[in-house]
Design goal:
seven-stranded mixed sheet, alpha/beta, CoA-binding protein, single chain, NAD(P)-bd_dom_sf, CoA-bd, globular
Length: 182
């Protein structure tokens, strides 16, 4: 389901599923140390639901990952041919590698199917973007031994752990917990 997202959040999903009551969430995700370990062990990321539209969150995240992370980034979208000058694959099964992280920008109802695809291709982690919460998808992935992160933005988490997160969510290039002098 979806959590409240502040207006203009760069990693928010463009279409919202009905929000679940807070008590409906029973799954517990990994804490900050575990998320950092996932990011450190990651070499490749497949963005499922990648878009060539610059106003979409997946495009913004893809741009960030390509410019500010060490990851090999693959795009999955059955309707696009090229995103940011890179090839786009129709499905996870079409990728040339088994991605370490499958970062998902899809509707709520599609998430269990994407989880099954991630399991089938040998991914290590299913990452559901900010605003995405699907306990069925989490159960499918975890039953097959995948790590699961839900309702977190991969771009925000990477920037947060690597010292480049500004209050607005942009990479400042400053590696410090202190504000620059005025």
């Amino acid at each position: 389901m979806n959590s409240p997202v502040t207006e203009g959040a760069v990693c928010a999903l463009p279409t919202a599923a009905p929000a679940a009551a807070p008590s409906a969430r029973t799954w517990r995700g990994p804490g900050a140390p575990e998320r950092l370990a996932i990011l450190r062990a990651t070499r490749s990321v497949a963005i499922v639901g990648a878009s060539d539209n610059p106003s979409r969150a997946s495009y913004f995240v893809a741009t960030y990952l390509l410019s500010s992370s060490p990851y090999d980034v693959y795009f999955v979208n059955p309707r696009a041919e090229s995103i940011l000058g890179r090839p786009v694959y129709r499905s996870l099964a079409d990728l040339p590698v088994a991605p370490d992280v499958v970062d998902v920008f899809r509707r709520h109802d599609d998430l269990p199917g994407v989880a099954r695809e991630a399991v089938a291709v040998g991914a290590r982690t299913l990452w559901l973007q900010l605003g995405s919460w699907n306990e069925e998808a989490a159960a499918i992935a975890e039953a097959a031994g995948l790590g699961v992160v839900m309702d977190r933005c991969l771009k925000i988490e990477h920037a947060r752990f690597h010292g480049g997160l500004h209050l607005a969510g942009f990479d400042t290039g400053v590696i410090s917990s202190r504000r620059a002098p005025a």
